[in-house]
Amino acid sequence: MTMRRHDKEIVSREEIDAVIREADVCRLGLAMDNTPYIVPISFGYDGEAIFIHTASKGKKIDIFAANPRVCFELETHVQIQTDDGDACKWTFDFESVVGYGVIGELVSETDKAGGLNHIMRHYSGREWAFAPDDLATTRVWRIEIESMTGKRSAEKAEIR
C-alpha cells in the first residue's frame, strides 16, 4: 500500500508501534457479500498481531466466517485546528495507522488467556487471571498483520 502524501507518512516501525500502543480504539473494517461493515473495538497488540474478543455469536463472527480478511485503523493525538477567518483552513492534527490482515480464532484456554491478556495489558498495564467459565463463553481472535502504514498530519501543532 502506498501513500499519496509521502511527506505525512510515518515510515519508522517504532513510531507506527507507538501510535498503536497509544490508541484507545481500533476500528475494524470487514466485508461480506460486497457490503462493508466497520466496528470500533477494544484491542491488544504484541508487535505482530492485534487481539480482540467477541461474544459467542454476532454479526462480526458471521463476517469472519465468510471473509477473514480485515482492515484496521487506529489514531491518536487528534486535535482540531481552526482558523477564524477561513473555514477551508480547518483541519485535524493526528497520527494514524491503517493496516490489513487475516483474522483467526484462538481456541485453546492458554491461547485465549494470552490474547485476553494482550488486550488487558493495553488498557490496564498488567496481567490478569481468567476463570475457565469466562474463557468458555468468550471468543478471542488474532489478526495476523500483513501490512500497515502510518500517517502524521501536523499542520499547525507539534504532535510528538
Secondary structure elements and pairings:
Blueprint: E1 9-10, H1 13-22, E2 26-32, E3 35-41, E4 44-45, E5 49-54, H2 59-66, E6 69-81, E7 91-106, H3 109-124, H4 132-137, E8 139-153
Antiparallel strand pairs: 1-8, 2-3, 2-6, 4-5, 5-8, 6-7, 7-8
Q: Which terms summarize this structure?
A:
160 residues, alpha+beta, 8-stranded antiparallel sheet, 8 strands, 25% helix
Describe this structure in words.
With 160 residues, the protein is an alpha+beta fold. Helices cover 25% and strands 42% of the residues. It has helices at residues 13-22, 59-66, 109-124, 132-137; strands spanning 9-10, 26-32, 35-41, 44-45, 49-54, 69-81, 91-106, 139-153. Strands 1, 2, 3, 4, 5, 6, 7 and 8 form an 8-stranded antiparallel sheet that branches. A hairpin with a 3-residue loop joins β4 and β5 (49-54).
Topology order in helix (H) and strand (E) letters: EHEEEEHEEHHE
Shape: globular
Helix/strand class: alpha+beta
Number of helices: 4
How many beta strands in the DSSP annotation?
A: 8
What share of residues is helical? 25-40%
| Rg, nearest Å | 18 Å
Low-confidence stretches: 156-160
Mean pLDDT: 90
CA distance, first residue to last residue: 25 Å
Largest sheet: 8 strands, antiparallel
Proportion of residues in extended strands: 35-45%
Quick description:
Strands 1, 2, 3, 4, 5, 6, 7 and 8 form an 8-stranded antiparallel β-sheet that branches. This protein has 160 residues and is of the alpha+beta class. It is globular and about 60 Å long.
